[in-house]
Amino acid sequence: MLSEDQERDIVGFVKAWRHKRFCTCRYIRHELGLSVSARTVNRVLNTNGYNWRRVPHIQGLTTEQLELRKEFTEAHIDRPSVWWEKHMNLVLDGVTLTMAPVPLNAREKHAAQRITSMWMCPGETLENDVHTFNRYGVQLGTKVALRGGFTGNGKFSMRFWTPKPKMLKHEWIALIPDVKVALVRAYGDASPRRPWVWHDNERFLICPDEYLENGMELHRFPPCSGDLNPIETVWAWLRKDLATREHDDLAAGRFLTVHQFKLRCAQILHSYEVVDRHGAPNRFQKLLRGMPRGLRKCQLNGYGRCGK
């Protein structure tokens, strides 16, 4: 049994820390030194209006964003799968990966950051001053920023390991010739005359004149449309495979250097290029061939987000 003071402590702990810590029932019980079951902690929180639910990460789309999604969808919905393979010569984007920290307790917390649910009150949505914006405070682990891309012929040909996730425009412009090199390396003699480079709407990336000067053509996905950008699926695959290997590392007491972590990422991304012995499309090519299906799904959803 819990006293009224203990019940108030449980509710107060969640109010104070749910935006910074992973407040599972076991964690709350441990931090408050309670000798009750996790189910009892759960009952107290339910009684006080807190329920363990999936955190809503994404806000709704504005009218302008919906119009841009509609425009993009209507312009491309009749394109066949082979068109996407031919014209998506390079799909690029950036991702910030995190290496597990060395201390055991920090590694366990790093793993807990993948918890996708939290104590939610009825009607709560994504807001900057509550847990739905930043559930666990500062991301634990060493940040490793990658800006990469895969080509229409199914190769992850571009990997730029950058000091920070974001760049200034002049920094990206200096890398554009290397983007062309990555394309030529992927296609060889079959390189398109003027390759199409696709990416999102990060401001420092938008420099169409510089792409033209280097023999490429810039194309952009609609804003706030990760569901229409196939490389977002690649990042999801990569994070999932890294998490599996991090679990094995934790069990074996193994630690990686930043260099080893980058090699692991490269190896995983390269594994997605592999085709079976029957010559079927690899995972990158299947993503591009699935673009018509994704656009139809977007249209049926009123041009709102349609998931993956």
What does this structure look like?
The protein is 46% helix and 13% strand. It has 2 domains: 1-49 and 115-137, no CATH class; 63-100 and 141-300, 2-Layer Sandwich (Nucleotidyltransferase, domain 5), CATH 3.30.420.10. It has a 5-stranded mixed β-sheet with strand order 5-4-2-6-7. It is α/β, with parallel strands linked by helices and 308 residues long. The protein has helices at residues 4-17, 25-32, 38-47, 63-76, 81-87, 104-112, 169-187, 208-213, 230-252, 258-271, 283-289, 291-300; strands at residues 51-54, 90-99, 117-120, 142-151, 158-162, 196-199, 217-220. Helix 4 (63-76) packs across helix 12. The model is unreliable at 133-137 (pLDDT under 50). The radius of gyration is 23 Å and the shape is globular.
Q: What's the mean pLDDT score?
A: 88
Query: What would you call the quaternary organization?
Result: single chain
Order of helices and strands: HHHEHHEHEEEHEHEHHHH
> What can be said about the biggest beta sheet?
5 strands, mixed
Count the helices. How many? 12
Summary tags:
alpha/beta, 2 domains, 308 residues, Nucleotidyltransferase, domain 5, five-stranded mixed β-sheet, two-stranded antiparallel sheet, 46% helix
